[in-house]
Amino acid sequence: MDIFNSSDVTENQTNGTPAAVEFWERRMLGMSQGIEELGSVRWELALCLLVAWIFCYFSIWKGVRSSGKVVYFTATFPYVMLLILLIRGLTLPGASEGIYYYLYPDINRLADLEVWIEAGTQIFFSYSLTGGSLVVLSSYNDHHNNCYKDCFWLCLLNSGTSFVAGFVVFSVLGFMAHKQGVPVNTVPSTGPGLAFIAYPQATALMPLPQFWTVCFFLMLILLAADSHFVPMESFFTSMSDLFPKLFRAPWVYMICKMITLALPARVPRGGC
After folding, report:
1. Which residues contact 148 (CB under 8 A, 6 or more apart)?
2. Tell me: the pLDDT tens digits for 32-52?
3. 160: which of 36, 75, 192, 239 lies 20 to 30 Å off by Cα?
4. Is 17 exposed, middle or buried (0-12, 13-18, 19+ CB in 10 A)?
5. CA-CA distance, 164 to 90, in Å (whole number)?
């Protein structure tokens, strides 16, 4: 028994992969060695996508009469969660280091083309540019609506939210760096690594970690829901304008069902 125990300890010491990374890559995604090795279907992810499409269908099947009511909750409640996480993040030890890193960036990086590509990608994604969503949703306004005022408030609210969210993120990153005794720039701060690895690691170090984890992922789910059904609403509105004789509800149901039937092919272990 001593031999087996010592070998287990040696294996744990040599394995430097954080627990959050192992859970994300091995348990959640079940990643294979590469895309050429598709492996079996991740049924947990397929069921999550099924629930997402069911929610999407019941949000848009009546047009803006249903999606407009859903947006009242899904678009406003994340701000409540953002405010809670902001207050909590600013009270964490090491938060000032993360805020300093956020507000005083390396000016020399402005000469890096990759920085501008990432910035442009963020603007195009957050404003839904070239996707048609803004044009379609604005078509429901009154004919004499002040679109310039709407554009001004949209830009102000969108960019302002991103700026405030930066305090939420970097205060927690500063807390993580403080706990680990490493510089802030070594903590993952972009992509899925931030949302599904770095932030859960940080909430696990806080008092009442379950509460803060639920707050964070509930905010993510609601934001993802908006990003999910708004483009679909734009698509179905455009199709209804092209084919006004088609009944909207059966048309929406048919498209959502076709996408749902293809879900298993989208979540194998090797990705798709």
Report:
1. none
2. 776 766 677 778 888 888 888
3. 192
4. exposed
5. 12
User: Encoding tokens for residue 259?
Assistant: 């996408």
Query: How far is residue 135's CA from residue 143's CA, in Å, rounded to a whole number?
Result: 13
Shortest CA distance to 223 belongs to which of 17, 82, 30, 113?
Answer: 82
Q: Could you read off the pLDDT of 95-144 as tens digits, one per residue?
A: 899 899 889 888 888 888 988 998 888 888 888 777 777 888 788 888 88
Query: CA 139 to CA 241: how far, in whole Å?
Result: 11
The pLDDT tens digits for 196-220 are 777 777 777 778 888 888 888 888 8
What is the phi/psi pair of residue 214, to 5°?
-65, -45
pTM of the model: 0.71
Which residues are paired to 206 by β-bridges?
Answer: none
Please give the single-letter amino acid code of residue 81: M
Output the six-digit token pair for 97: 């280091």
